[in-house]
Design a protein that fits this description.
- The C terminus is likely disordered.
- By secondary structure, the protein is mostly beta strands.
- The longest helix is centred in the C-terminal third of the chain and has 4 residues.
- The strands form two sheets. It has a five-stranded antiparallel β-sheet, with no helix packed on it.
- A hairpin with a 3-residue loop joins strand 1 and strand 2.
- Helix content is 3%, strand content 44%.
- The radius of gyration is 14 Å and the shape is globular.
- It has one domain: Jelly Rolls.
Length: 119
């Protein structure tokens, strides 16, 4: 068993959010996202996998395919369908969340040298 403390050793970057790989293997990809107040991840999609998010700390504005914005905070689970366009913007505090994806051929560690999710 491996254990990761999700709120330890946080690393924030300027000027863009930082996505730190917590697990990248043949089957899955788990990233810890750290956004400073006001930072955002523009609309994009994960074409080959559903995308799940659990918010750990802070508040952010998340939008899905319909473009409707939702202000959400800790203990929220977001479920995006495969290929669904999504975006996020941190509000006036640090925003930390974890995302979960099924690995696809283009995400496999052996194809990327393990540097998946680094901004």
């Amino acid at each position: 068993m491996k254990v990761k403390q999700l709120l330890d050793d946080l690393e924030f970057h300027d000027p863009v959010p930082f996505a730190q790989p917590l697990l990248v293997d043949h089957d899955s990809r788990i990233l810890r996202w750290m956004l400073k107040p006001g930072q955002q991840v523009d609309a994009h999609k994960v074409p080959d996998s559903p995308f799940y998010v659990v918010i750990l700390k802070g508040r952010g504005v998340f939008a899905g395919q319909d473009g409707q914005e939702h202000e959400l905070g800790p203990n929220s689970l977001l479920i995006f369908e495969r290929g669904e366009v999504h975006s996020v913007r941190a509000l006036n505090e640090e925003l930390i969340f974890v995302s979960f994806l099924k690995a696809t051929e283009s995400m496999r560690p052996e194809r990327t040298g393990g540097e998946i999710g680094r901004e």
